[in-house]
Design brief:
Chain lengths: 325, 334, 396
């Protein structure tokens, strides 16, 4: 085990995969010589050289288009979109080209690529650099969607994403970049499509993603110590493919579900999980399903405002107590 | 407009091949039109009648393992890579024998085995994808070249500019071919473009040579194609070629093209690439029976293709949710 | 026009379609008998609210649905009736982040909040919600409450007992649940007193034959005891009450229920409202009416609701006394068993003698949360004096 930060886990994973597979290449803005604006990709240019690790102009459509063209002709590209809000600039390439072409071609080609991006709020960057957009990706057939909550998962899931034969949108929560934790040394791969029960409990299931997972865990501690409520916390990890088995077995045990989502209220990923549970686990539910989300607003930039609107451990606790008997 | 006079005359075999490719395109597109009028081709279809010389010229010059990227007006560009005409007509008709089993349609023809890497319906989107394929070839050192066809309207969209800049700075083996048929959908290109030659006048912005050629002269297209391919293949980077041509029909089957002046249409139809080339071949002493042989061969071919496509049933319903993922499924959950 | 499951009594929440008398396509006139419906204790009928054609039946025979459910649709002349929309209430998850649920919808009380998990457990274990106390918010029965109840072994699992199996019908099940709950709710105390009915008999026997000729039924001891109870309850109002949380609520009038056996097939307690204002003959008539209607299944739900005190009279069978189970939410129940001629010591100033007197034992079960033994004993003593000393001729 090594102590790595969430950001260090990025280059650890990319290096691991680039060492074992020559077809893995990496492009993006300021990712090579500068080592990434969030310092996530330091050292890669030095180890793998300028043919495999390439800085690009500010041309998101070209970056992703090139990744697509390379992926369909034998390479395994990793592309970076610096802030996930910028996906809007090149969304056509993602949803119309990358997501749909295999299907339209009747399976003649595939797109083994990964698009990594810094996602979400908490850094006081303002609305155009702070949104969590993994729910946009979840809504598009043909895209796999991954959002790790800790460094070890990031390393393992990024490695799995690079090895995956399909397009993966890999969302790194920028508010987590500094978090250090234990990360297995050596080859580490966490398969896609597996959620993790990160805290066991019996009274309520809290399903969370990415930066909301640590907050859910804090809330669970408070619920236990101050309210004697035993909360089980499930880290979804992948929105597509979605591990409904783990989520369902938890909700079946506790009878109660709360989701914690960084997305704005409407059509956040929790809405889909909520719908699946209410349809398929209806008879196991002992209370209504509650979603804790950011309200349906762009994120304000002032630190106090941003902190107030993003789901906090206190707000999670408050919402769980609403369900309590 | 560059003159064709001094283009090095190709050999007879090449000329016949060029004519064969153009004739195949012509009869197929005409048949597609007929089938559309009989409501056997559904949805929409964008025909390139009148623009055959461009596809044929490049098709004859390309290596088998080169990559083609084209637009939704890409039936010809796909056919000239040696793709099955039955598959193309079948796809237009939504049949099981279609090139894409009915899942893609007229605007998305693709045959990866033949290097036809797709027809793309979003304006400009395939330009960076072509750059990516070229990057892949460069990285692997395979010597393959990507050729990307698009229209005059594409030169004003963001992806055009991003892609050419990108290809230029990375010195990618990609040939960008702008088929300027003077109209961006229903609007004259000159009304919406700040410069006269929508592609060539932008070339210098990316450090490339401005090239404008007569797209209805197959010999000219062929020669320029060969040069651009050789340049890319030898590592000397991308080209941007503006090819002047004209479509006989409207933008799509739904469009009768009434916004174009009759004299203009008539003049261009006089310059029909097949007409021009047929006359030139005879003038060059090529035996007419060989020419007629090609015409009859392609006429029979398109009849066979149509008959086979008609006989083919609709695709089985079970394929509707297949091949979203590489494993053949569309599963998003366990 | 929709035909709905009606509210068949104040606290009735659902009913079962026993028999459909019409089929889809039948012409119906307003008032025609459409359906026989059964609730907890009563069978009743639903008539066509309007004339037309029975266009659609949404709930078939044998199914139990909530009050207010659309059972069928009658197409009035010219009306087009659409396919039924998907049945089953959608419970909308109304929890928005910090905001209160939208107004305009009636909020449910705890007894209506049966979660899907609870409903399923009840069904699986053949339980009634009335058997289970809720400790959830606002008294809601939670999934854990049901699981705990089951774990206590109170629910009847599939039994290994040998013998002919007689499944409980609806009345039996409801009665069983009520009896269990009553014993679980009220700490029962039994007190008895023996009563000399010879003064009652003077009146009763004198009128007996005429009464029978006039009415067709016999004049029993019950209406006399009922009259005495009504007088006594005026002086002991706490016995005519109900426990509500931490309080005893005294009812303003006496609605006297009598226990009626339905030919060994079940028990109902039918109510005579405002019994305190009735004479012995009026009480007798009311009781007879109730018994008759009970035995012919013609009781209405209101005949079964609102009782404040109950009399049980198994007398005809000759039993000595019974320890009856309180009819919730009342706090007392009185049983009069057989009145039999017995040797009885009669005291006079001069000497003690033995006489043959008709003696009956009144057995009183009371809820010790509400009242204590002394109060009940005083009440019984008063009852005894009233029965023994009233000039019954004037009570008719």
């Amino acid at each position: 085990m090594a102590q790595l930060s969430y950001r260090e886990a990025v280059s650890a994973a990319i290096a691991q995969e680039m060492r074992r597979d020559e077809s893995v290449v990496f492009l993006g803005e300021d990712i090579a010589a500068p080592g990434g604006v969030f310092k996530t990709t330091e050292g890669l240019l030095a180890e793998f050289g300028p043919l495999r690790v390439r800085d690009t102009p500010i041309s998101e459509q070209a970056i992703l288009g090139a990744a697509a063209g390379a992926a369909m002709t034998g390479l395994r590209p990793i592309a970076e979109i610096m802030f996930s809000d910028f996906f809007a600039v090149c969304w056509d390439i993602v949803v119309n080209q990358i997501a749909k072409t295999r299907f339209m071609s009747d399976g003649q080609c595939s797109f083994p690529l990964v698009i990594r991006s810094a996602n979400g709020g908490g850094a006081r960057f303002g609305a155009q650099h702070s949104q969590s957009v993994e729910n946009w990706a979840m809504a598009v057939p043909g895209l796999k969607v991954v959002a790790p909550s800790n460094a070890a998962d990031l390393k393992g899931l990024l490695a799995a994403s690079i090895r995956d034969p399909d397009p993966v949108l890999f969302f790194e929560q920028k508010s987590l970049y500094g978090m250090k934790s234990d990360v297995p040394e050596g080859e580490h791969v966490v398969p896609l499509g597996q959620a993790a029960v990160v805290r066991e409990g019996t009274d309520v299931t809290i399903v969370a993603l990415a930066a909301m997972v640590p907050r859910a865990l804090k809330a669970a501690e408070t619920l236990q110590s101050e309210h004697n409520i035993s909360a089980e916390v499930v880290d979804v990890r992948c929105l597509v493919p979605l591990d409904t088995t783990t989520i369902f077995s938890s909700v079946s045990k506790t009878g109660r579900l709360v989701t914690v989502e960084e997305n704005p209220r409407l059509c956040g990923w929790g809405a889909e999980v909520s719908s699946l549970v209410s349809e398929e686990l209806f008879w196991d539910l002992d209370s209504p399903i509650v979603r804790v989300t950011t309200p349906h607003i762009p994120l304000p930039s002032a630190d106090t405002l941003e902190d107030a609107v993003m789901p906090s451990p206190a707000r999670i606790v408050e919402n769980v107590l609403k369900l309590a008997d | 407009m560059a003159a064709a006079a001094n283009a090095g005359a190709p050999e007879e075999e090449t000329r016949l091949e060029l004519y064969r490719l153009m004739q195949a395109c012509r009869v197929m597109e005409q048949r597609a039109y007929d089938l559309f009028m009989q409501n056997l081709v559904k949805g929409t279809s964008h025909l390139a009648l009148g623009q055959e010389a461009v596809a044929a010229g490049f098709g004859a010059a390309m290596r088998d393992d080169d990559y083609t990227f084209c637009t939704y007006r890409g039936h010809n560009h796909t056919l000239v890579r040696g793709v099955s005409m039955t598959g193309i007509l079948g796809e237009l008709m939504g049949r099981e024998c279609g090139l894409l089993s009915g899942k893609g349609g007229s605007m998305h023809l693709m045959d990866v085995d033949k290097g036809a890497m797709g027809s793309y319906a979003i304006i400009g989107a395939h330009m960076p994808i072509a750059a990516g394929a070229a990057w892949s070839a460069q990285y692997r050192g395979s010597g393959q070249v990507a050729v990307c066809f698009f229209g005059d309207g594409t030169t004003n969209i963001g992806a055009f500019h991003e892609s050419i800049n990108f290809a230029a700075i990375w010195n990618l083996p990609v040939v960008y071919v702008c088929e300027n048929n003077l109209y961006m959908e229903y609007t004259p290109i000159s009304a919406v473009t700040a410069v006269e030659n929508p592609a060539a006048d932008r070339a210098s912005a990316y450090g490339l040579e401005p090239v404008v050629i007569d797209g209805n002269d197959a010999d000219v297209v062929f020669a320029v194609a060969q040069a651009a391919l050789a340049k890319a293949r030898s590592g000397d980077g991308p080209s941007l070629i503006e090819v002047l041509t004209y479509r006989h029909g409207g933008h799509s089957r739904a469009d009768p093209g009434k916004y174009r002046p009759d004299e203009e249409v008539a003049a261009w139809k006089e310059r029909d690439p097949l007409k021009i080339y047929r006359a030139r071949m005879l003038e060059a002493g090529i035996d007419e029976t060989a020419i007629v042989g090609i015409e009859e061969e392609q006429a029979a071919r398109v009849d066979r293709a149509e008959a086979t496509a008609r006989d083919s049933g609709p695709p089985p319903l079970e394929i509707a949710d297949t091949d979203v993922w590489a494993d053949g499924s569309s599963r998003w959950r366990n | 026009m929709d035909v709905l499951m009606p509210q068949l009594g104040e606290t009735v929440s659902e009913g079962t379609i026993a028999i459909w008398h019409k089929q889809v396509g039948d012409a119906v006139e307003k008032g025609d008998l459409l359906i026989d419906v059964e609730t907890d204790k009563v069978a009743t009928e639903i008539e066509a609210p309007v004339g037309g054609v029975l266009a659609r039946i949404d709930v078939p025979q044998g199914e139990t649905v909530d009050v207010g459910t659309v059972l069928a649709v009658i197409a009035v002349e010219g009306e087009v009736v659409e396919e039924a929309t998907v049945a089953g209430e959608v419970v909308e998850a109304k929890a928005a982040t910090p905001v209160a649920p939208p107004s305009g919808l009636p909020t449910k009380n705890a007894s209506e909040k049966l979660s899907p998990a609870v409903r399923r457990l009840l069904k699986q274990h053949n339980l009634q919600i009335s058997q289970i106390s809720g400790t959830g918010r606002d008294g809601r029965v939670t999934r854990q409450n049901v699981l705990d109840f089951i774990a206590q072994g109170v629910a009847s699992p599939k039994s290994e007992i040998a013998g002919e199996r007689i499944p409980f019908d609806r009345i039996r099940r409801v009665t069983a649940a009520h009896m269990v709950k009553s014993k679980a709710t009220s700490p029962h105390v039994l007190q008895t007193i023996d009563v000399d009915f010879h003064r009652v008999d003077k009146s009763r026997l004198a009128r007996k034959d005429q009464w029978k000729a006039d009415t067709g039924y016999s004049l029993s001891y019950l209406p006399f005891v009922a009259r005495a109870v009504c007088k006594a309850l005026v002086e002991f109002p706490r016995i005519n009450g109900s426990v509500d949380g931490d309080a005893l609520v005294l009812h303003p009038q006496i609605n006297l229920a009598i226990a009626i056996d339905l030919n060994f097939e079940g028990l109902v307690a039918a109510v005579t409202r405002n019994a305190g204002g009735l004479s012995v003959s009026q009480l007798a008539q009311s009781f007879n009416d109730l018994v008759t209607r009970a035995k012919t299944k013609k009781l209405t739900p209101d005949d079964l609701q609102g009782g404040t005190y109950t009399l049980s009279n198994p007398g005809p069978f000759g039993t000595l006394f019974t320890a009856p189970i309180i009819n919730q939410p009342q706090v007392g129940i009185l049983s009069l068993d057989a009145v039999k001629k017995r040797p009885h010591v009669v005291e006079t100033a001069a000497h003690d003698a033995i006489a043959i007197r008709p003696i009956g034992i009144l057995a009183h079960s009371f809820d010790h949360r509400a009242i204590d033994g002394a109060y009940s004993a005083a009440y019984l003593q008063r009852l005894q004096s009233i029965i023994q000393e009233t000039d019954w001729h004037s009570e008719f």
